[in-house]
């Protein structure tokens, strides 16, 4: 199959407008006769379900959680980008577009990214109308802060719980449609296969996670909004239930999987404390607005801190290495995530890590306390304020901006971050790769769409902070409702899709057989045993840096691990009850296949780009020494993998990327 991105002709700034002017529409009376399935209820799935139902379609919405409001979008902290230029600091639609393409290391599709930037401003208006309590400045206007990889302030936020507030907005819109009967909500249901009838996606097979019942659900189109695959690493900032299953099932039925090796390591996470952990905790990138990242300059001080004979607060300024400010003076602590993560790893690998494992750097707010405190003392007319008073006043400002994050850190680490610097270290966070989609957000399966983090379309090789929420809501509120209508216009006479067909029967049998296998296979190892082993392979050999030898080893080791999994996995309990181990077994089986394709994709891409850092492709000398080195002549393409059985047999299709409005050049944040 030839890859057709279906990008409209014409100037970049006119593509979306012209597209909307000429698409087919479904009139309101006909929408009542069309069903749409949406899998996932995060920001992308929740906003899509609510909007499609508001338009008049009959929506079936599926969530494996007990409520849509528990979707992992709730964990997002720092904010959402939009090109409104409220600060008057030079922002624009074009600058958001440019920053996003550059931040993604020039590995994203121009047309999709420009559309994202174009609709971003509408998202804020939509969410304010829903009652999302964005932070406001002293005059009552919406406030903004800056995030990594940009030189403007365009990030709207609600303290450190932006994702939660935005999800509540989408959830309230969903609830209105549930009450009207336009959304049929299926909580505690997991999609386990997609059903293809006459070449089109016409439904799914889902399992009721409470009763174990396998169900058939039909529709005229299927939308996958199930998030990313970061949990292939076992340890990540994702919720423990986050998985790749819905995306992987459609991949195995014909949807190409794009750029699986593009995963994001977030630089601002609480370091792991031991092998017993099952997940990691994110500390918002917004903290890098006011926190300065450093390690001791001298190894003797590192050893003293580890031994407990020296406190970080006792170290003089001249003995601290603010390495991001030193290496990247133009952007400082607000370099993009991939750059900040590799820089932290480099310092820790050199022996400057400050915790017991040697995998931590400091995020210090002391200078912000002084800066804000001095300003507040002047505002309140406090003359000759003591250092203690200035610190107190400054801490109150920081508390107002990030209080819940500081509280969360203290509860987890048992240290007061107001009195001693936070410790952070990079961790797996987001996946830029995902299901390949065209400009319409349709996969290579007609009638099957992928939105939000489940698709690959907007972030290239590295996502800029605060862009995930922007993409999820853009896709759900403002893009998919147009593009899916163009497709569904051909279905106004189709009528209800029957589930009593050979295609549904075959798909249900395949799902049932797999479940029976897990229940009947009396192996010797738990599901987590295999998940942890996979995660270690992925982190060691497909993590923050990769090389050809390690990737070849990873492919071999994952293949062997998968063989052992199918022989020796043990799933306790029954399939006619709530059985989390059974659900997890299916998810880990999919991760084992994805992991091998991930390593294969990383091996093929013999360049460094964004979050994909090949050790063989780094700048050797000059001002960019040690930085990622792209190869635009050979790798300016999207890797789109076609399923052919075993991951080793997957077929690579290339979507060549064209850059007509942005000059291709090596990134520099110095």
UniProtKB/TrEMBL annotation:
Gene3D superfamilies: FAD/NAD(P)-binding domain (3.50.50.60), Fumarate reductase/succinate dehydrogenase flavoprotein-like, C-terminal domain (1.20.58.100), Succinate dehydrogenase/fumarate reductase flavoprotein, catalytic domain (3.90.700.10). The keyword Endoplasmic reticulum does not apply. GO terms for molecular function: electron transfer activity; flavin adenine dinucleotide binding; succinate dehydrogenase (quinone) activity. Its main location: membrane. GO terms for cellular component: plasma membrane. It catalyses: a quinone + succinate = fumarate + a quinol. The active site is at 337 (proton acceptor). Its EC number is 1.3.5.1. Residues 35-469 form the FAD-dependent oxidoreductase 2 FAD-binding domain. The keyword Membrane applies. Residues 610-631 are annotated as: Disordered. GO terms for biological process: anaerobic respiration. Its cofactor is FAD. Belongs to the FAD-dependent oxidoreductase 2 family. FRD/SDH subfamily. This is succinate dehydrogenase. It comes from Polaribacter vadi. The gene is sdhA.
């Amino acid at each position: 199959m030839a890859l057709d991105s279906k990008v409209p002709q014409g100037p970049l700034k006119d593509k979306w407008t012209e597209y909307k002017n000429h698409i087919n529409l479904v009139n309101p009376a006909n929408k009542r006769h069309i069903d749409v399935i949406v899998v996932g209820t995060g920001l992308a799935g929740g906003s899509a379900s609510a909007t499609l139902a508001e338009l008049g379609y009959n929506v079936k919405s599926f969530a494996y959680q007990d409520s849509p409001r528990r979707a992992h979008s709730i964990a997002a902290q720092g904010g959402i980008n939009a090109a409104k230029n409220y600060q008057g600091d030079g922002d624009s639609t074009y600058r958001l577009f440019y920053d996003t393409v550059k931040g993604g290391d020039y590995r994203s599709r121009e047309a999709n990214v420009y559309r994202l930037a174009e609709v971003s401003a509408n998202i804020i208006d939509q969410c304010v109308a829903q009652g999302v309590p964005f932070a406001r400045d002293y005059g009552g206007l919406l406030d903004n802060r800056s995030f990594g990889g940009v030189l403007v302030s365009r990030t709207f936020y609600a303290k450190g719980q932006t994702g939660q507030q935005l999800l509540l907005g989408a959830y309230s819109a969903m609830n209105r449609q549930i009450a009207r009967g336009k959304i049929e909500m299926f909580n505690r249901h997991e999609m386990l296969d997609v059903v293809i009838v006459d070449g089109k996606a016409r439904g799914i097979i889902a399992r009721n996670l409470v009763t174990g019942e396998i169900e058939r659900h039909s529709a005229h189109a299927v939308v996958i909004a199930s998030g990313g695959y970061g949990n292939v690493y076992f340890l990540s900032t994702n919720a423990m239930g986050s998985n790749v299953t819905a995306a992987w099932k459609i991949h195995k039925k014909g949807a190409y999987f794009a750029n699986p090796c593009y995963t994001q390591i977030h630089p601002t996470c609480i370091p792991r404390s031991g092998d017993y952990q099952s997940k990691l905790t994110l500390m918002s990138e917004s903290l890098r607005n006011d926190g300065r990242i450093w390690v001791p300059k001298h190894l003797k001080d590192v050893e003293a801190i580890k031994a407990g004979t020296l406190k970080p607060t006792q170290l003089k300024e001249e003995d601290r290495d603010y390495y991001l400010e030193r290496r990247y003076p133009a952007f400082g602590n607000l370099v993009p995530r991939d750059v900040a993560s590799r820089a932290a790893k480099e310092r820790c690998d050199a022996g400057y890590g400050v915790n017991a494992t040697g995998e931590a750097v400091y995020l210090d707010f002391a200078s912000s306390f002084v800066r804000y405190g001095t300003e507040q003392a002047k505002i309140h007319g406090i003359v000759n304020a003591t250092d203690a008073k200035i610190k107190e006043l400054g801490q109150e400002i920081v508390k107002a901006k990030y209080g819940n994050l500081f509280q969360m850190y203290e509860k987890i680490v048992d240290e007061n971050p107001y009195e001693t610097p936070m410790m952070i270290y990079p961790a797996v966070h987001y996946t830029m790769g995902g299901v390949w989609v065209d400009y319409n957000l349709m996969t290579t399966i007609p009638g099957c769409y992928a939105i939000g983090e489940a698709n690959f379309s907007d972030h290239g090789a590295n996502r800029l902070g605060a862009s995930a929420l922007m993409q999820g809501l853009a896709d759900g509120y403002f893009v998919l409702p147009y593009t899916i209508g163009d497709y569904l216009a051909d279905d106004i006479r189709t009528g209800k899709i029957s589930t009593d067909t050979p295609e549904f029967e075959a798909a249900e049998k395949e799902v049932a057989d797999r479940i029976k296998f897990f229940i009947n296979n009396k192996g010797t190892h738990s599901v987590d045993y295999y998940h942890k082993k996979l995660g270690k392979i992925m982190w060691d050999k497909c993590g923050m840096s990769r090389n050809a030898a390690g990737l070849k080893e990873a492919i071999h080791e994952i293949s062997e691990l998968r063989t052992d999994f199918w022989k020796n996995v043990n799933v306790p309990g029954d399939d006619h009850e709530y059985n989390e181990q059974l659900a997890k077994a299916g998810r880990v089986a999919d991760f084992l296949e994805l992991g091998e394709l991930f390593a294969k994709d990383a091996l093929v891409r013999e360049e460094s780009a964004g979050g994909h850092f090949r050790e063989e492709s780094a700048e050797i000398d000059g001002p960019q020494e040690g930085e990622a080195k792209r190869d635009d002549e050979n790798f300016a393409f999207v890797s789109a993998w076609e399923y052919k059985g075993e991951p080793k047999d997957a077929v690579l299709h290339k979507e060549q990327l064209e850059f007509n409005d942005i000059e291709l050049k090596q990134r520099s944040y110095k």
